[in-house]
Amino acid sequence: MTTPSYRTALSVFSVVSVLSVLSCAKPQSMATVSARSGISSPDADTRVSEVLEAVFTGDAKGVSNDSLYNPTGAVVANGSQRFSSPRLAGVQLGGESAITSTSVNVRDGIAWGSVEYRWFSSDMSQVRVGRATVVLTPRPKGGWWVDQLHSSTSR
């Protein structure tokens, strides 16, 4: 008869510990999370889409949209952290930004998605195509704000 190794014993202990913790957890329903955070499920997709529209179209205009971002969140454009407009990769102040496609998911008090967008210079001599992944979380007093936004352009 062989004795179990330290590694095997540690693996078994880890699995048992995780299962013990998970068995104590109480799953929350969507209704519970929504009621707690003040976000009603039926219109969550619409509200998230409105925030994304304001973020992406307002960026090129230099609109002060700091209230759309979680103060502890992060915005990264082409690998560099951004703290003010323009926050999106490929966007410059002036001109127009437009969303060309989105995919948004809302589940249990969190929303995430991908956005494809274009920026056009004021004189229409430049066009840049960008893609972003976005995570939105509930605001403390209702609604949504951007917690993480990572965007990039082809170079």
CATH architecture: Roll
Widest beta sheet: strand line-up: 2-1-6-5-4-3
Radius of gyration, whole Å: 21 Å
DSSP summary: helix tally: 3
Largest sheet: 6 strands, mixed
Question: Which segments are poorly predicted (pLDDT under 50) over 5 or more consecutive residues?
Answer: 6-38
Structural class: alpha+beta
- The CATH first-level class comes to Alpha Beta
Number of strands: 6
**Strand percent estimate:** 35-45%
The average pLDDT is 79
Written as H for each helix and E for each strand, in order along the chain, the element string is HHHEEEEEE
Gross morphology is globular
What name does the CATH topology carry?
Nuclear Transport Factor 2, Chain: A
Q: What is the end-to-end distance?
A: 63 Å
Q: Considering DSSP H and I runs of 4 or more, what fraction of the residues is helical?
A: 25-40%
Counted up, domains total 1
Structure description:
This protein is α+β, with helices and mostly antiparallel strands. The protein has a single domain, classed as Nuclear Transport Factor 2, Chain: A (Roll). 29% of the residues lie in helices and 36% in strands. It is built from 3 helices and 6 strands. It has helices at 6-24, 30-37, 44-61, and strands at 69-77, 80-81, 96-107, 110-120, 127-138, 144-153. A 6-stranded mixed β-sheet has the order 2-1-6-5-4-3, covered by helices on one side. It is globular, with a radius of gyration of 21 Å. Residues 6-38 have low confidence and may be disordered.
